[in-house]
Amino acid sequence: MNVGIINIGDELLTGKKDPYPAEMIEAVRSKGADVAFIQVITDDIDVIVKALAYSQNADVDILIVTGGLGPTLDDLTREAVAEYMGTELEIDEKSLDELERFMKRIHPEKELEEISKRMARVPRGAEAVHNVCGAACGIKAQIKNMTVFCLPGFPNEMIPMFYESILPVISGNDEISEELTIFINESDVDPYMRQISEKYNVRVASLPSLDYKKIGNKVVIKGKKENVMLARKEFENCINSL
Predict the structure, then answer these.
(1) How far apart (Å, rounded) are the C-alpha atoms in residues 91 and 119?
(2) What does the alpha-carbon distance between residue 176 and residue 234 come to, in Å, rounded to a whole number?
(3) What pLDDT, in 10s, does the model give residues 118-133?
(4) Cα of 60 vs its chain's centroid, Å
(5) Could you give the CA distance from residue 166 to residue 148 in angstroms, rounded to a whole number?
(6) Residue 21: what pLDDT?
(7) Whole-prediction pTM value?
(8) Tens of pLDDT along 146-169?
(9) Which top CATH class is 176-240?
(10) Can you tell me whether residue 4 is helix, strand or coil?
(11) Nearest residue to 78 (alpha-carbon basis) of 36, 49, 140, 121
(12) How far apart are CA 146 and CA 58, in angstroms?
């Protein structure tokens, strides 16, 4: 299974916040799935719609979108998903009830404001995703072969919702990865990396170090188990002959 991640928020593009949800990425990979890409984009409907189109063209099975689900002017993820689906937003009554009860616990003396009800909207044809510990409901939408999950940007809401609603449906690709440490210049082994990639239909990544003679360069081989083991053996034989 291939997973894409889009993180939305102008604040993520200032350099003052880490835009990469490391815990989420690690959890996806722990299930044996691939993270195909991570995009960090601005709060702009056109940009979000283009990112959704890119994701669909990239053939990801699951797309996780974070941020932009609040009630304010710059929270535009709901509108963008509805536009991409060619539909309208509507109130999810169960989510509205949960929102009212949540807000009542925080502000028992106040009635729910109209602007806050924006957090209970989902595109027609989509489902609301229960917010485990916050106000804004998430979204689950099936767009052809891609399942889109939209989560709030706050980690204390995003991560529990991810574990409850998304991680259980992520499955692996029946692949393994093998990591080797080599003390050889990256350019010297590139021909052998290409050789095993083409011969055994595996993906080969190089993680170089400037101080490779002391700490080594990393080479990662990923693919079907049998192919990876054959590729590793041939690669080791090649570099041992240098």
Answers:
(1) 9
(2) 17
(3) 999 999 999 999 998 9
(4) 10
(5) 10
(6) 86
(7) 0.84
(8) 999 999 999 999 999 999 999 999
(9) alpha beta
(10) strand
(11) 121
(12) 10
Domain ranges of the chain: 2-169, 176-240
Do the bridges between strand 203-207 and strand 146-151 make them parallel or antiparallel, or are there none, so unpaired? unpaired
pLDDT score for 99? 95
The amino acid at residue 232 is: R
Query: Residue 148: which of 212, 78, 90 has the closest Cα?
Result: 78
Tokens of 70: 């609040």
Average pLDDT (92-104) is: 94
> How are strands ordered across the β-sheet holding 217-223?
176-182, 217-223, 203-207
pLDDT score for 19: 83
Domain 2-169 and domain 176-240, same fold? Reply is: no
Phi (first) and psi of residue 132, to 5 degrees: -65, -40
2-169 classified as CATH 2.40.110.20: no
The pLDDT of residue 50: 98
* Residue whose token pair is 């056109």: 46
d(CA 42, CA 143): 22
Query: What is the reported pLDDT for 87?
Result: 98
